Amino acid sequence: MIDLKASFFLLWKNEAFYFSLLVIVIFGILPNYNSLPHILDNPIWNSLTTVDAKMNIGNDSIAIFSPEVSPFVGLMKWDIPSQNKLFDFLPADRTVSTLISEPFTLTEKWELIFSLGLFQMVCTKPQPYEGPIASLQPLGASQIDAMLELTALTKPGPFTQRTIEFGNYVGIIENNQLISMAGERLHLSGYTEVSAVCTHPLHVGNGYAAYLVNHLTNQIIGSGKSAFLHVRQDNLRAINLYKGLGFEIRSDIYFAVIKPKK
Predict the structure, then answer these.
(1) Which of 62, 135, 175, 259 could form a disulfide with 95 if both were Cys (CB 3.0 to 4.6 A apart)?
(2) Residue 196: how many CB atoms within 10 A of its CB?
(3) Residue 224: which region, alpha, beta or left (left: phi > 0; alpha: psi -120 to 50)?
(4) Which residues share a beta bridge with 233?
(5) Structural contact between residues 139 and 255, judged by C-beta atoms closer than 8 angstroms
(6) What's the whole-model pTM score?
């Protein structure tokens, strides 16, 4: 079902909105709003131009994080003029990533390093957690090295020196070792992303990831927002875990890593 609140949030910067107004005025016909983009279809752009705008080091046309925080970049549209603006903006050595609902064609100025199909999953009503209970600890500056070590080992997605600035990371520490963690990443109107979900290989199967995700999801929904996350389409174990926690697949998402040819 279309999320009307999220769709109307994008109307003011969507060309279709103005066309729809014209249709209503002239013909008295209400347009089909199912054709409007969902706020989560372009999560990087819609995060950095709204709730996470303080983290945007780009401009009116380019939404981008500092490389120490995240490699992600967002554009309102990945058309040729927008790609050219991004090309001129980036230094030659900056590799960036993006998340978008529809794959796009790169111009000859870009090198595609890597691409992958993901599922975007959303939870509005978490399921009761029935697994083992662990002791959670908030993660801060003193645990950054341990967080970088764990994410480098497990590769849950981009995680760099200042990624923790997204806020609200929690973990499970055993014998002075961080063995499992998760946290928040993108923040949009009505939505907060759960990210960096990972567990040390020696501790997989103990229910830690489920417990962490359930904990964060309940916090997010308790704040009046919906939780969402991204998962590889071939990671059936994780997909089933998230479904058991109340998440549903909303959309395919295209993940790409690109670099300017300079």
Answers:
(1) 259
(2) 25
(3) left
(4) none
(5) no
(6) 0.85
- Of residues 145, 174, 181, the one with CA closest to residue 161: 145
- Both tokens assigned to 53: 């705008």
DSSP line for 235-258? -HHHHHHHHHTT-EEEEEEEEEEE
Percent of the chain at pLDDT > 70 equals 87
**Structure token digits, residue 214:** 């359930």
Q: Are 58 and 48 in contact (CB under 8 A)?
A: yes
* Residue 192 CB burial class (10 angstroms; 0-12, 13-18, ≥19): buried
DSSP secondary-structure letter at 128? P
Per residue in 81-120, pLDDT (tens digit) is: 999 999 999 999 999 999 999 999 999 999 999 999 999 9
Helices (H) and strands (E) in the chain, counts: 7, 10
CB atoms within 10 A of CB 100: 19
Within 10 Å of residue 106's Cβ, how many Cβ atoms? 16
> Residue 161 corresponds to which tokens in the numbers above?
């020196």
Report all structural domains of the chain as residue ranges with CATH numbers, in order of start.
Answer: 1-37 (no CATH), 121-252 (3.40.630.30)
E runs forming strands in 67-134? 73-74, 96-100, 110-123
